[in-house]
């Protein structure tokens, strides 16, 4: 007999294919899989007793072997710009999720894919606190569900239109779980987020990019330098996956009619010179992509600083003058440590309201 109180299957881990297989096991009609998705994700039901349009016997049997269990929020912060940061307890540690307002009625959700991060990039807080393992699909889905609930409670009519895997962790090092999460997220009977509105960010795990291409998921490459020596200094993973191999995989990725964005954190006197601009121009001539410039966001015990606004705009304009699509990412949530590179998975009482 299994004495583990958490032995039950969590249905939030189930893709549509998993639900269909479940109905086969119980010898039920296939359409019940659609109904289960609807109850869980459209009607936000986590209590089996409230599922009233499916055979009672099937639900009773399902209840014996499964549960609908999401994670729990332990802290929440709201910035002056309406950015929301949720601090969430997982099975192994603490993660952070950010809901970013991107228009009057729309939010982008930035989710974490791992408990911490093993890559230890110099410009990011996440890796400074260690790595505690991969997140399961339900732990990623929980972030969306809880963000959705929080947005509804605070802003009523606002909704989630975009999801980016740019929070804590390297998504491509947890790819199987990430793809299962995206399958649930994009399922029209579940959360119904258009796959074109979902973006995976990677530091460049080259042997996994092909799988992203096959699934036609928009990709953002965290480049941050066009020089191998500098990139290896600020991103140690570059020693294993150097620029040439990454760019070759990106070319293959683009050949499958996919969308690529180059993310480039601007760090004063490190990667913001005219030479860096020219290298970026040469790179984008080889890759049909757009560039997102990200002014460095302050993190504890870092020697780095962001260039001033004048230099950032000049950097952008030089790229624009070469017919490159480029934007500057707006700083969102920096007052609550929710901006790019600031997620740490630690509770900071400095930002408590009370």
UniProtKB/TrEMBL annotation:
InterPro entries linked to this entry: Aldolase_TIM (IPR013785), Methyltransferase_A (IPR040072), RlmN_N (IPR048641), RNA_MTrfase_RlmN (IPR027492), rRNA_lsu_MTrfase_RlmN/Cfr (IPR004383), rSAM (IPR007197), rSAM_sf (IPR058240)
Gene3D superfamilies registered for this protein in UniProt: 1.10.150.530, Aldolase class I (3.20.20.70)
Residue span, Radical SAM core domain: 103-335
Subcellular location per the Swiss-Prot or TrEMBL entry: Cytoplasm
Entry's Gene Ontology BP terms: rRNA base methylation; tRNA methylation
EC number from the UniProt entry: 2.1.1.192
Molecular-function GO terms, alphabetical: 4 iron, 4 sulfur cluster binding; metal ion binding; RNA methyltransferase activity
Official protein name in the record: Dual-specificity RNA methyltransferase RlmN
Biological source species: Candidatus Azoamicus ciliaticola
